Every structure is written in C-alpha cells, then in structure tokens.
Amino acid sequence: MSEPGSLVRALSGRQTARNYHSYVIAEVGLGIASGRFAVGSILPNDAEMMDSYGVSRTVLREALKTLEAKGLVEARAKVGTRVLSRSRWNLFDRSVLGWIQEAGPDAAFLASFTELRETVEMQTATLAATRRTAEQVRMLHYWLNQRAAMGAMPEPFALAEFEFHRTLFEASQNPFLRAASGLVEFGVVQSTQARIRAGVTEFAQEKSAHYKALADGVTAGDPQAAARALAAILAQDHAWTIP
User: Fold this and answer.
1) Which terminus of the chain is more exposed, N or C, with fewer CB under 10 A?
2) What is the pLDDT at residue 163?
3) Are 71 and 127 in a shared domain?
4) How far is CA 105 from the centre of its chain?
C-alpha cells in the first residue's frame, strides 16, 4: 500500500497482499493501528506469530524490521517487540496512513490531519502557480476533466481528484512537497468516504467551480487566485471530514 493511488484503490475493499512478507506487515500494521496490539504491549513471540500467520521465521523477522522502520514497533533483546506510541509512527508513510484509514481514524487525529493538510496544500498551490510547466498545466486540466467525467463513480472519481492534487505537488518543483503527496491522498479518501456514508451519488459537482478556479489560477500564474480556490476546496472537505 505504498505506491500513489493505493489508498484510493482501497475504497472498494481491502487490497490483497502480494506475498507473505507484505501480508504479515499489513496484518500486524493494521493490528497496531486498530488497537488490537495495544501501545506499550509486547507482540506475541516468534513461535506464536509464525503459527498465526503461517510464515517462516525469516519472513516474520523481515516484516517486523519493516514495521520498525515505519516507527510502529521497537525490538529489544530479552524483552521482545514493543508497540510504540503513535507519536513515533511515520505518519507520512502511505502504508501507515492506509492502516489508520482501515482502522478508522478518530476525531482528534482527523483534526490534526486537516491542520497539516491545509498548511502543506496552500504552500503547494502558491508554488505551483509560479513554477508550473506547460506539461503540468496540461495534466492539471486533463485530471480536472477526468474528475468531472467520473463524478458518479466513487473510486475513479477519487483517483482523478488525487491525481489533480498530485500534479500540483509536482508543479511546486519542491521535492519535500512531492514526497508528501500521501497526505492529500489520505484527505481525498476521507472526504470521499464521508460523502459515500451520507448517500452522495454525484461527487464532482459540489466543488467543480473551485477546482476550475484552481486550475485557472495555476494556468494564469496567479498564486492568490490559486490559494483562494484551494481554501474553498479544503473548507468543504473539512466540513465533511471532521465529525
């Protein structure tokens, strides 16, 4: 679940792990995000986990190393593998965001997330308006059209909306912002899920004027216009996302 678009594709159901290694990572990661493996607890020993997941010690150890690199667990000699607090988790990691998404983020997490998304995306929009290339402008309008065309299909719509935003991140020409595109994907998924739960059947129309204004602002090289349009988009998303 680490590649762009993977969070959106999970809207239609949980993704199947590609191999035993990714299967164990996903199962334990979701167990931690959901609280099944509580913060501060010690994971079951190797023998128990090998039996539970039907994998070898080598696969299990490699999976736990991956989770340790993501900040979810910490292995200590003679103690075991301890589940770390959320403050240690890499919340920019798509896999971690995916497990939180599947477990169901709480209101406090979503509130903190929307604060960060606003900061990151507003900066991205203003930079994109001054640094975009002709090809990035073309792709922005392509995804704008795709977003409208897919308005009745939740997953294709969400993917088009995410790709629109990802094009903005690319147009910022800032590698740190490009690396944070998982944040906006998570945000698109959260707002889309909220609309699905509310019975919305057409997803594009509500924000279509704001998205057009954003694309036009970037095209015209007008950072103020781009920022105003993005602020309107985020305001509507936040109203759906925050309970």
Assistant:
1) C
2) 97
3) no
4) 12
Q: Which residues of 117-153 are buried (b: 16+ CB within 10 A; e: fewer)?
A: bbebbbebbbbbbebbeeebbebbbebbebbeebbee
- Is pTM beyond 0.85? Reply is yes
SS3 42: strand
Domain that includes residue 149, residue range: 105-241
- Return the structure tokens found at 42: 């010690």
Per DSSP, helices labelled H in the chain are 6-9, 20-34, 46-53, 57-69, 94-103, 107-131, 134-149, 154-171, 175-178, 181-197, 208-219, 223-241
Angle, helices 208-219 vs 134-149, to 10°: value is: 170
pLDDT per residue as tens digits for the range 93-108: 999 999 999 999 999 9
Beta bridge partners of 73: 83
Q: Find the length of the chain.
A: 243
> Among candidates 10, 79, 14, which has minimal Cα distance to 43?
79
124, 236: one domain:
yes
- CB-neighbour burial class of residue 23 (10 A; exposed 0-12, middle 13-18, buried 19+): middle
d(CA 189, CA 195): 10
- Per-residue H/E/C for 68-100: HHCCCEEEECCCEEEECCHHHCCCCCHHHHHHH
Q: At what angle do helices 154-171 and 208-219 cross, to 10 degrees?
A: 20
